[in-house]
Amino acid sequence: MASKVVFITGAGSGMGQVAAKRALLAGSAVAALDVNAAGLEALGASERLLKLVVDITDPAAVKAAVERTERELGPIDRVINSAAIMPLGLLMKQDHALILRIMSINYGGLVNVARAALPGLLSRGRGDFISFSSIVGHVPSIYMGAYCSSKFAVCCFTEGLYHENRKSGVRFACVCPPAVATPLLDQARDTVWPKMFNLAPPTTPEKVLDTMEAALEKGRFWVMPEFGTLVYYWMRRFAPNLLWRVIHRVEGV
């Protein structure tokens, strides 16, 4: 990634922040976006780092961030969409506005970034466009309906982009990890903690990013870190009723 310009949403914490630190260590220039200014400050200072406090649900703000990045750092080579929120709860008990907010950030933010940043990559015929979804973007679960819906949308939108532009020279990847040890899990602890989360320890951001890089080099679109993730994926495809019985038994619902 040396000498590349990397545009990262959700860089104020978790996966996005780890990705930003790795890119800086590799010699890349980084545009780090988040609504959390304090989180961005944790990245430190560098002439190769542009910290941008941006609400990705605002398409005009995202477009301005892309333009500033390319003006100050150069053409964007890699886009990493990792901004997300994950408050959980039963669908009929979660606040109506919160459900729509989850979709607006997790999916709507991706759409805004794609519309602002992807045309430059396509016109240059190179670069990486990476979306962070989740295994629950393929496998719905109890207490996670709103979050799962947003991640299903991320998977579908990114897969559509990939197939519409597969001969463009731009590499696309949709990363679908299990639970990851990041502050995002704290939002679940503060709302509802699904018992399904207790079946296996969360993976690490570093392992997810390593798997992502290997998948990109192999030309793979779907990135599913951890063997258990593949088990859930294939169970959802070939034994969905069995999988739901397991979920109901574990959650007691």
Q: How would you characterize the overall build of this protein?
A:
α5 links the parallel β5 and β6. This protein has helices at 14-25, 37-41, 59-72, 96-124, 145-164, 184-189, 205-218, 227-238, 240-251; strands spanning 5-9, 29-34, 49-53, 78-81, 128-132, 171-175, 222-223. With 253 residues, the chain is α/β, with parallel strands linked by helices. It is globular, with a radius of gyration of 18 Å. Helix content is 49%, strand content 13%. Strands 3-2-1-4-5-6-7 form a 7-stranded parallel sheet, with helices on both faces. The protein has a single domain (5-251), classed as Rossmann fold, CATH 3.40.50.720. α8 (227-238) crosses α9.
Summarize the structure.
This protein has 253 residues and is α/β, with parallel strands linked by helices.
